[in-house]
Write a structure and sequence with these properties.
Number of helices: 10
Number of domains: 1
Strand content: 15-25%
Number of strands: 8
Strand order of the largest sheet: 3-4-2-5-1-6-7-8
Order of helices and strands: EHEHHHEEHEHEHEHEHH
Largest sheet: 8 strands, mixed
Shape: globular
Radius of gyration: 17 Å
Bound molecules: adenosine-5'-triphosphate, magnesium ion
Structural class: alpha/beta
Length: about 260
């Protein structure tokens, strides 16, 4: 279970989570993409999928009755070989039981998939931090602006970020402009032991055209090769760490009703 997370809003987490998941699925692996952003989940919107089936609906069901593979199957959607559990389409709806249900949903998913990528969104809340803490590894999407690296520094030094520093950390520098990338790459490696997976250039035309066609930029256009390179590098790093599955014994095969938290 690999969390994709940003030190701030709008750094490109959803774009990168979708890209990494599709690129990994394109290599023949069994991959699930889960939109667990406790803010506003945008995975379904980026892929043109339905928003009436989601992690949040599934976790809500879990407060009423045990949830098993059949229930999970009713909420999973398929996109070009990728299993997708959409996110919360409605801002302001309570995240309530998300944390209590998430672990078991992930356990069910881990029985079916080699790699689970989780769009956590920005690390702005205790819920996001708790989801990130449950992941085996994290991919930070760092905005390649002059403030991007500074924002990550502040985030990793914050009370939300500090507990995460024991996890294997990777980073993708998104919207990379001239000048910053080399400095940021060296600095991230030195200060935080972050493995920089790659740089994705700023390319508004490529993302606009992808959004208009509901075809993520990893599947065609000027950003495809840099996104694929970053995904391949992520898989090399994960394979070097023994893969991205949950440790054996962690998954529960059914999800039982639990009281709300966070
Ligand atoms: N490399 C890039 N070049 C140009 N535009 C980009 C790039 N990466 C992302 N964008 C655009 O920036 C916007 C925000 O991206 P995205 O939704 O992926 O960010 P996010 O971190 O998930 O945001 P949020 O904090 O709302 O979850 C989108 O319109 C996306 O198309
Ligand atoms: Mg997002």
């Amino acid at each position: 279970m690999v969390g994709v997370v940003g030190p701030g809003g709008g750094s490109g987490v959803t774009t990168l989570a979708v890209s990494l998941a599709l690129a990994a699925a394109g290599t023949g692996r069994s991959v699930a993409l889960v939109d667990a952003d406790p803010g506003l989940g945008m995975v379904a919107a980026q892929l043109g999928l339905g928003e009436d089936r989601s992690l949040f609906h599934l976790v809500h069901e879990a407060t009423l009755r045990p949830v098993d593979h059949a229930a999970l199957g009713r909420h999973l959607q398929s996109y070009r070989g990728l299993a997708v559990l959409a996110g919360r389409a409605e801002p302001g709806r309570a995240v309530g039981s998300l944390l209590s249900g998430l672990e078991s949903v992930m356990g069910l998913l881990a029985e079916l998939h080699e790699l689970i990528l989780v769009d956590i969104g920005p690390l702005h809340s205790e819920t996001a931090a708790a989801i990130a803490f449950r992941c085996q590894a994290l991919v930070w999407v760092v905005d390649g602006s002059p403030l991007g690296a500074d924002r990550l520094d502040r985030c990793l030094s914050s009370s939300f970020g500090r507990p995460l520093r024991s996890k294997p950390q990777m980073a993708i520098i998104n919207r990379a402009g001239p000048g910053l990338p080399t400095r940021a790459r060296e600095w991230l490696a030195r200060e935080y032991g972050l493995s920089v997976l790659g740089l994705v250039p700023f390319d508004l035309a490529a993302v606009r055209s992808a959004e208009e066609r509901l075809l993520p930029p990893v599947l065609g256009g000027a950003l495809t090769s840099s996104l694929r390179r970053a995904a391949n590098r992520m898989m090399e790093v994960l394979d070097g760490q023994g893969g991205a599955r949950l440790p054996s014994g962690a998954p529960a095969s059914t999800l039982r009703p639990e009281s709300s938290s966070a």
